[in-house]
Write a structure and sequence with these properties.
- Helices cover about 50% and strands about 10% of the residues.
- By secondary structure, the protein is α/β, with parallel strands linked by helices.
- It folds into five domains: about 40-255, Rossmann fold (3-Layer(aba) Sandwich); about 270-485, 3-Layer(aba) Sandwich (Rossmann fold); about 495-555, no CATH class; about 605-640, no CATH class; about 735-750 and about 770-795, no CATH class.
- Strand 12, helix 14 and strand 13 form a beta-alpha-beta unit.
- Helix 4 crosses helix 5.
- The longest helix has about 50 residues, at about 675-725.
- The structure holds adenosine-5'-triphosphate.
- Adenosine-5'-triphosphate binds near residues 72, 95, 97, 361 and 391.
Length: about 800
């Protein structure tokens, strides 16, 4: 019965649906004809005030109304008319002035009027943005104003499965994308056709057409039909003839609404700078965000690299400034990035540390302050960064920290771009120093120290390859002071090869751009990585970074899901890798189970901790295979090492030398000197004896556990042989489970995943060069006394 009812109703339903579609088409046809006529008559020079003054379709008007867009901004008023009439456009207007609608409205309307919408119409428009964040934002606006249209749109910006994107692309009428990812689809997705494409839009066009993306864009253009309309928009748009030729623009209209304005930045934006030495920038930043009024603000802080962002975020987070902190950089997973953007968008009070990945286009509502702790690469970047505040009629403030050496050059650059900026000073009594706190934190947490070192290195390298030497001159910075301000005990050494300077500069430029390209196209990056030739050094340092940072991520970054710490900036130079030696010791420690480099010298005080400080960080230079080998031998490494000095911290965190001279009077008051000496020697001898006993017991237990495990394996193997076969996957897992269940030491599990084979006995430097079998295999030297005895025997 039910089937019958369904059988009877289905054709009726379909018929009605068909009827509705036909009626709509007729209405649309009439609508489209009327619209075409109105667009034909439209005078692009006339000034329109409202969207309703423009010949726009019903669904678009409804979409605009539901998103509360009624009045046109200047750029919208000028550009939309021209674009509706099919002109190519170079659009320039200040940040936050509504350029997104200026290109999205014509895109929707032109496709609608040419009936390039719906499932079979194919791809009609491509909107390219330099970053994922921006691509998703444009897509959101498109969804808002296009919701009443029968248009299929989507984002293709990486971070999702390629296949998923390829399937979706086949149905899209409008795609919002990043350059690298769309190029990948153009070249790899067979079913992806752009033959019907009518419109190409480049948002942040100057950025997309610059060095970092140029190759991708040129390749994309090759795929697109030449007969199309092209719209280019940016707050820092140029009329570069070369770009126009590359994009085959036809008689483009240059729409620059603020060209004659006295300032190139928004009117409601108050801009200041402070002169602060590099070594005090972090102090100043801390003082700023912990100010009472800042705690009730939304602050966006720009730093120059991923490493800076990570370090400042981690350090400040632990110091609890009293304002929610967020951080964003291009090495995070897409989901994390989008989540952070969303959280900052919704936040009322928050401080976001970010790289230039959000410098352009991203529309965070109601940002109160933009703080540029690290200076911008150029004046255009400055304009885009500060443009994250004071958007669409809102007020905003921006402050930039300048090292004294940067002031003159930067002001010249900004003046040339019509940026009104004034100097202000920090009140001395408001300035707090966090140097000691950071130093303490770095001592306590090697991972933070490691991040600090990386931040220092990346920053310094960044300065070295800055193209504008008049502003950024590496020689003029107090780098030792800067290292100290990061909590480091000395400036890590970096060696720049003169011969590589040009190449480094080129790569730096590319990297700045590619960092963003990367930000947009992480997967592309991964593809490149895969094909790249990897040297021994690469592999070694990748391993090392994983060792050092794996724990760090788990511990301090938590579940943030950062993408693995690639050699983001390291690859800029062919520098000799210099690693402060205590870092190496640490990473080797992690590899070499059970051996300790620095004994726990607690100086009799059980609450005191000992930290090895490699004084001026005498770094080890890895410049040959021999040295690479050396790294693997901890003992040899220690020989090379400037041992540094040991200090001990008491409960108050005050550092003491390990042997500090006591006040003589107090010492004598405690009794006869000989008696005191005897007591001390006895106590120390007792302590060493006890430690010795414990060592022996531990070593024996360890050996016993290993032996048991080996025997267990052998028994299992024999069992398997008897049965004649072992199901490789399942039984292996079962074995691993069994070993774990049987409670064999976790150390063994670490041993190459429990795949331990009977090992040859490791040779010691003092052993005779005999086959292992001939040695007293059963007797291993376990204590220092035994070692001494053995050495004495050899000497005799
Ligand atoms: N006609 C309008 N009426 C009201 N609000 C608008 C209008 N046009 C744009 N806006 C709002 O202004 C803000 C800035 O718009 P948009 O992001 O398009 O600026 P932009 O010029 O592209 O800036 P940027 O150069 O930084 O990319 C957005 O929040 C947007 O919603």
């Amino acid at each position: 019965m039910a089937a019958e009812i369904t059988g009877r109703t289905r054709p009726t339903k379909l018929k009605k649906q068909q009827q509705r579609t036909n009626n709509k088409r007729k209405r649309d046809d009439v609508d489209i004809e009327t619209l075409e006529a109105q667009v034909e008559e439209l005078d692009p020079k006339a000034t329109q005030t409202n969207f309703s003054d423009l010949p726009l379709s019903g669904p678009t008007m409804e979409g605009l109304k539901s998103a509360s867009f009624t009045t046109l901004t200047d750029i919208q008023s000028k550009a939309i008319s021209l674009a509706l009439k099919g002109n190519d456009i170079l659009g320039a207007a200040k940040t936050g002035s509504g350029k997104t609608l200026a290109f999205l409205v014509p895109v929707i309307e032109n496709l609608y009027r040419s009936q390039c919408v719906g499932a079979d119409a194919g791809l009609g428009a491509m909107v390219i943005a330099p970053t994922r964040e921006l691509a998703f934002q444009i897509f959101d606006v498109l969804c808002k104003i296009g919701r009443y249209h029968n248009i299929a749109a989507g984002v293709v910006a990486g971070g999702k499965s390629f296949k998923e994107e390829a399937d979706a692309l086949a149905r899209m009428n409008i795609v919002v994308c990043t350059p690298g990812r769309i190029l990948q689809h153009l070249s790899q997705t067979a079913a992806f056709s752009v033959d019907n494409l009518r419109m190409l839009v480049l948002d942040e066009a100057d950025r997309i057409l610059d060095m970092g993306f140029s190759k991708d864009v040129d390749a994309i253009i090759e795929y697109l039909p030449p007969d199309r309309q092209t719209l280019l928009f940016s707050a820092t748009q140029t009329k570069k003839v070369g770009d126009l030729a590359r994009l085959s623009l036809k008689d483009p209209e240059y729409v620059s609404v603020h060209e004659k304005a006295t300032a190139s930045t928004p009117q409601n934006l108050k801009q200041n700078y402070i002169v602060v030495p590099l070594s005090q920038k972090l102090d100043t930043l801390w003082s700023f965000i912990t100010e009472k009024s800042s705690k009730h603000s939304k602050i966006l802080v720009f730093l120059s690299s991923t490493k800076q962002v990570r370090f400042v975020y981690e350090a400040f987070r632990h110091m609890q400034p009293g304002i929610p902190l967020l951080h964003l950089h291009g090495r995070q997973k897409q989901s994390v990035r989008l989540d952070t953007v969303d959280r900052f968008r919704r936040a009322k009070f928050s401080c976001l540390f970010a790289t230039d990945v959000v410098a352009r286009g991203v529309d965070f509502p109601a940002v109160d302050w933009v703080v540029q702790v690290d200076g911008p690469e150029d004046a255009d970047t400055y304009i885009h960064r500060v443009g994250r505040t004071a958007r669409y009629e809102r007020e905003g403030r921006a402050v930039m920290f300048l090292d004294p050496s940067e002031e003159e050059g930067m002001l010249k650059r900004l003046e040339a771009k019509r940026v009104p900026i004034e100097r202000i000073n920090v009140r001395a009594k408001k300035q707090t120093s966090i140097k000691n706190q950071l130093q303490g934190m770095c001592f306590q947490d090697p991972q933070l120290k490691y991040l600090g070192q990386k931040a220092f290195i990346t920053y310094t390298k960044g300065l070295h390859v800055q193209k504008d030497r008049e502003v950024y001159d590496l020689q003029k910075y107090d780098l030792e002071g800067y290292a100290a301000s990061l909590g480091l005990s000395g400036a890590p050494r970096i060696q720049f090869h003169k011969a590589d300077a040009e190449e480094a500069k080129r790569r730096k430029n590319a990297s700045r751009s590619e960092a963003l390209a990367d930000d947009s196209d992480d997967e592309d990056g991964a593809v490149k990585e895969k094909n790249a030739v990897r040297t021994k050094y690469d592999r070694m340092f990748e391993r090392r970074n994983q060792d050092v940072l794996a724990e760090h991520y788990a511990k301090i970054v938590g579940n943030e899901d950062d993408v693995e710490d690639g050699a983001e900036d390291e690859d800029l130079f062919d520098v000799k890798r210099r690693i402060p030696i205590d870092e190496d010791v640490q990473s080797l420690d992690e590899d070499d189970e059970g051996e300790e480099i620095e004994g726990p010298a607690t100086n009799g005080d059980p609450t005191a901790r000992t930290i090895n400080i490699s004084g001026a960080s005498q770094p080890l230079v890895l410049d040959s295979k021999r040295r690479e080998k050396l790294l693997k031998s901890k003992k040899k490494l220690l020989k090379l090492k400037d041992k540094g000095s040991k200090i001990v911290f008491d409960d108050d965190g005050t550092a003491h030398q390990i042997y500090e001279l006591e006040d003589e009077e107090a010492f004598r008051a405690r009794g006869a000197i000989d008696e005191q000496r005897r007591q001390f020697v006895d106590a120390e001898a007792e302590r060493v004896r006890e430690a010795d006993q414990l060592d022996k017991v531990a070593a024996k237990e360890k050996k016993k556990a290993k032996r048991e495990k080996r025997k267990q394996r052998e028994r299992e193997a024999e069992g398997a042989d008897e049965e004649g076969r072992v199901a490789v996957g399942g039984d292996k897992d079962a074995m691993a489970n069994f070993i774990a269940d049987a409670g064999v030491g976790s150390e063994d599990e670490d041993d190459e995943g429990g795949e331990e084979q009977p090992r040859k006995k490791a040779r010691k430097w003092f052993q005779r060069d005999l086959p292992v079998e001939e040695e007293e295999v059963g007797r291993e030297i376990e204590t220092f006394d035994e070692l001494e005895a053995e050495a004495a025997k050899l000497l005799r």
